[in-house]
Write a structure and sequence with these properties.
It holds the Pfam family NAD_binding_9. This is FAD/NAD(P)-binding protein. The chain has 16 helices and 19 strands. The chain is an alpha/beta fold and 585 residues long. The protein folds into 3 domains: 233 residues, FAD/NAD(P)-binding domain; 119 residues, FAD/NAD(P)-binding domain; 136 residues, no CATH class. Strands 3-2-1-7-19-18 form a 6-stranded mixed β-sheet, covered by helices on one side. It has a 5-stranded parallel β-sheet with strand order 8-17-9-12-13. Helix 1 packs across helix 16 and helix 7 packs antiparallel against helix 12. It is globular, with a radius of gyration of 25 Å. The model has no long low-confidence stretch (mean pLDDT 95).
């Protein structure tokens, strides 16, 4: 019987695993053949998120030159580098373009076809356009992958779960809001993928409360404005008359920072410096474990600060007051926040050149406004300032911090699940929308279609309506008959709607305190409650404790996802080779 591998999920992550199987098979697999089964109800390569049948108004969130599916020599992996084109090279478009998601889907389909073509003879791929329902089988024996609509399962020697982003059951608050809306004839849209949400239920000209100011909100904004026939004439929005009025707030109360609008020239900060492999190994080796805020965050903050000030001193020395070697020596020796603050105050005269991570994380903390109009004016000024700074290479230390964030994330992914705060902080600072989207927010504000609620927005349901409150404007309340939760479902094992993942959890797969699937950091094998890796089951992606930043990898940044894909592919091929050796003996 030919060895068999099942990959559940044929989107970007499943395609990445397939590419690494093709790259490593010549070295590791010289068996008599192999059947690879790809299981996904959506098209291979593009998957659900990047499928062709979605609005062309929805963009990627990265420049085309910053999107690649191919490894390079910066990736710390055992397998061979197989270079390939970035999205902009493949599509022949300007590297600074924010391509629409359908074009990215075309690129992913091409990558998938190339991976198929590069598989060695004897490896056959079968695509099953169905949903996987569960995985059964003994730890030491062949596995069965059950598909919807099929009475007989696929039989596999190994199973790799590359499930991508999943729907989730609502939590208690969301269930209560949905029930209230049903009782009172209101509209409540819980966390979901915006492109898959029925937005026709939101009436034109009426107020809609929106909780969430990240990328899901940007999609919502686009589909409810241009998607309803409005258009932009320069910085002016020309309504169609079919738009609702969006009242948006969130924990921070501000949109994510805009994408940086320039490239780094000159010397790059030498990273990692304060948080590298040695530090992560030391954290993992601590007998009592580690605490993120106490043990990890100080290293993160020092790494980000080092990149910021290294760039400031090298690229903009006229705005500094100490020789760089003196500053860096004292920076490395600083024992606490007070030491660092005193050093920075002496070395960097202009506060705009200092790195204030707390202010970046919560820019409205302590801010109070007398009226909604005052908040509207302040938030518009905040967006204008963000757009100006993020497009100005005179503040290129911001780009250095971005590079440090990527470096840091590549290390932190080795530590497992660090909780939602870190991922949210990273996304706010490093994974914001294209600058044109923030300019559109300003135009919609001027048109009266986008209103800001403030930070720490709360929603109550009473008297037949939804009400939004924020301490940013004390005493002010916004009422509406519609509420949209503009955020993705939490990728937790316990509430995932995916039946396979829920069954896996019920059968003993371990989860982290924050609800993610626990995996072996060495190769992605699924762990049980005792920490034992399952010999025949692997998992990769956002539902695991090894989730990586962003949907795609930026070229020449180490690519943690590439490293994981390679490790899983090599472990799988090594295991399958051992089966063929035993069978031949």
């Amino acid at each position: 019987m030919r060895p068999s591998l099942v990959i559940v999920g044929a989107g970007p992550r499943g395609t990445g695993v397939l590419e690494r199987i093709a790259a490593n098979a010549p070295e590791l697999y010289a068996g008599s053949g192999l059947d690879v089964h790809l299981v996904d109800p959506h098209p291979p390569g593009a998957g659900r998120i990047w499928r062709a049948d979605q609005s062309p108004l929805l963009w990627m969130n990265s420049h085309a030159e910053d999107v690649t599916m191919f490894t390079d020599d910066t990736v710390d992996m055992a397998g061979p580098v197989r270079p390939g084109p970035t999205l902009h090279e493949w599509a022949g478009i300007d590297g600074r373009t924010f391509a629409d998601r359908r074009l990215q889907g075309d690129y992913l389909r091409w990558v998938h076809e190339r991976a198929l073509a590069e598989l060695p003879p004897g490896v056959t791929v079968h695509h099953h356009q169905h949903r996987a329902l569960r995985v059964t089988g003994p730890r030491e024996g062949r596995q069965q992958v059950w598909l919807d609509g099929h009475e007989q399962p696929l039989t596999a020697d190994l199973v790799v779960l590359a499930l991508g982003h999943l729907d989730a059951e609502p939590d208690d608050e969301q269930r209560a809001l949905t029930a209230y809306a049903r009782t009172h004839g209101l509209v409540h849209l819980p966390p979901h993928f915006t492109a898959d949400t029925d937005l026709d239920v939101l009436p034109a000209g009426r107020p809609v409360l929106v909780r969430g100011f990240g990328l899901a909100f940007v999609d919502l904004m686009v589909l409810l404005t241009e998607g309803r026939g409005g258009r932009y004439d320069g910085d002016t929005y020309l309504p169609s008359g079919r738009e609702p009025v969006l009242y948006v707030g969130s924990r921070r109360g501000v949109p994510y920072h805009a994408k940086l609008g320039y490239d780094l020239s000159g010397e790059r900060p030498p990273l990692p410096r304060f948080l590298g492999p040695a530090q992560t190994a030391e954290l993992l080796a601590r007998p009592g474990g580690f605490d993120f805020r106490r043990d990890v965050w100080p290293l993160v903050a020092k790494e980000l600060g080092f990149a910021h000030y290294h760039r400031l001193f090298t690229a903009h020395p006229e705005r500094t007051a100490l020789p760089r070697p003196d500053f860096e020596q004292r920076y490395a020796a600083a024992r606490d926040d007070a030491d660092l603050a005193a050093l920075v105050a002496a070395a960097v005269p202009d506060p705009r050149d200092r790195l204030d991570l707390a202010a970046l994380d919560r820019p409205l903390d302590g801010a109070r406004y007398d009226s909604p109009e005052a908040l509207q004016e302040a938030l518009c000024a905040y967006i204008d300032a963000d757009l100006a700074r993020r497009g100005d290479p005179a503040y290129s230390q911001d780009l250095a911090v971005f590079l440090a964030l990527l470096s840091v994330y590549g290390q932190l992914v080795r530590l497992g699940d660090l909780g939602p705060w870190w991922h949210g902080f990273f996304s706010h600072l490093a994974s914001g929308p294209p600058a044109p989207r923030l300019r559109q927010m300003r135009a919609l504000s001027r048109a009266g279609l986008l209103r800001f609620v403030g930070a720490d927005m709360t929603v109550t349901a009473a008297d037949g309506v939804f009400r939004a409150h924020s301490p940013t404007v004390p005493g002010h309340t916004v009422e509406a008959r519609a509420l949209v939760e503009a955020r993705l479902p939490e990728p937790t094992v316990g509430r995932a709607r995916d039946p396979l993942l829920r069954r896996l959890h019920a059968d003993g797969a371990a989860e982290t305190p924050h609800g993610l699937l626990r995996t072996d950091p060495a190769d992605g094998r699924v762990l049980d409650a005792d920490g034992r890796p399952h010999p025949r089951r692997f998992a990769l992606g956002p539902c695991t404790d090894a989730r990586t930043p962003g949907a795609f990898t930026r070229p020449r940044t180490g690519g943690a996802a590439f490293r994981q894909n390679d490790a899983t592919a090599r472990a799988a091929l090594t295991f399958l080779r051992s089966l063929t050796v035993r069978a031949a003996a």
